[in-house]
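quick one: calcium ion bound model?
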Amino acid sequence: MVLGFFKKEQERNTAWWREGTVYQVYPSSFKDSNGDGIGDIPGIISKLDYIKSVGTDIVWLSPHYKSPQVDMGYDISDYKAIHEPYGTFDDCIKLIQECHDRGLKIIFDLVVNHTSDQHEWFKQSRSSKSNAKRDWYIWKPAKYDEQGNRIPPNNWESYFGGSAWEWDEETQEYYLHLFAKEQPDINWRNLQAREAIYKDAILFWLDRGIDGFRIDTVQIYSKPEDFPDAPERVPGQKLQNPSIIVETGPQLHEILQEMNRKAFSKYDIMTVGEGSPPSLEKTLEYVSSSRHEIDMLFSFDFGALDHREIAHTLNDIDMVEMKETVYRWQRLVGKTDGWTTFFLENHDSGRSISRFASDATPEARNRSTKFLAVLQATMSGTLYLYQGQEIGIPNLPDEVPIEEYKDVNSINYYNAVKEDTKNDPDALKKAKKYLQKVARDHARSPMQWDASKHSGFTDGEPWMIVNPIYPEVNVAAQEWDADSGLNFWRHILKFRRQHKDVMVYGTLEVLDKENTKVFTFTKASESGRTFLVALNFTDKAVDYDVDQFASKSTLLLSSIGNVHHKSGSLQPLEAVIFEIHHHHH
Ligand code: TEU
Ligand code: CA
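yep, here:
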């Protein structure tokens, strides 16, 4: 371990996180060890051999810190303590050690746009206007409308609905919360607050040996000093989404460079930020290695293809838009000094087979899991796999009633529709349909280990409903099935490692921009090897001839099994990888 030593870029060891695949663990829903119905750290430790067996290299642990759990741990009340039901501080140290013993790396979530309102810092801040920590959060006086009614400082809408400002009776000011009202935003203009974050939230854990951070909401720390109204995106609405104003604010890059200089660079670690700037140029401002900010970003763009978050509507995926989206983020690799990522699921999304392929039948689920595995594993950059994705867990089915949805975002939205429409059954049906597709709850239902009661997740009563499909879709059932999604993931991650020059580091070119059924692209390595990847996104066979793109090629892999591939066509939801042989003159 290198303590207090400034690492120069050329001394950094970067291959492990570029080539590594990350497995995201959602602590409350992974494995319960003591029967209280809540997943915990000893449970995670008991499944590290499994995580390793999938062929993944890095564990990302979603927030496990002390928290009142208004937003499942993204509301932290003490960065240096563990949420009690998850285990003890020693359990957490043991988890780091047990990962390292197996050759796994481990990264934690870094949630520093906001704290919980129960954090000591905020308790002090709200105690009086003259408190030393008053300025650590964002406090503003009220405004008044023509009738003299008190109104918030501006029209910003919280990401979880309602005004982003909460009135504090005690000190007669509003504080800002871009998420739930129990998640006050930190004032990043305050230097003391910044130093405290570096010390408590970052260096405290780096000193204990973790290998990096997934950085929550990395784009929105810096707000413009004048807090202007957000432009009208939903016509006629009083409150408006503030993203355009709060993303990449005036001091954001200065802050990230300081964070890197004073904290990240002290260790040889990886950093991945959650945030999706609108252009390649803006993205490079974060991830260009010459800027010393962060290593990579998650893009929201792929996950936004099937719905419009602000309007709460669903739409069919536009294949042309999909290809543009993929290319936009893939071109960071090979063509810039930045790096990229690819994921299909996380704790904020619905399940990928239900959104981007098909979950209609057992056969479709199996096909879709493998099909999407090929899509993901052929992407350059660092891959992120979410717990349960590898066995193809689908979304919760329609029959699961709204009462089983536990996410603050889902609940706020559903209640708002109830209120706004005075319980209109059609509007509520539409809201449920929206949630049935993209709610965060689908990813948060417990991991499915076997066919025993509650899927082997807990001996007690699970904190959230287990997907009723678990007797069919579970790890144990897939272990012994050579054709399972799980075993296919194992296979393709090995294949990716074997061909990492193309699969991890290759440059991607789209070959069939206008085709609305098939997505075909090449991946080329620096040394001149080229793979051609074709994905049939439809549930029908399509005519497809590789010869249109290459005179000589060999099939390396088909998601339905190489022996089942029929030359001249692609079967429903079949994905194939060919190697193209160039002519040498
Ligand atoms: O999600 C952030 C989030 O919801 C983004 O989509 C947000 O709109 C964007 O950052 C604005 O630029 C993260 C976590 O993943 C989620 O689970 C938390 O609820 C949230 O932050 C608040 O911490
Ligand atoms: Ca437990």
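Residues 71, 74, 111, 159, 179, 216-217, 219-220, 243, 247, 274-275, 347-348 surround 1-O-alpha-D-glucopyranosyl-D-fructose (ligand 1) (CB under 6 Å).
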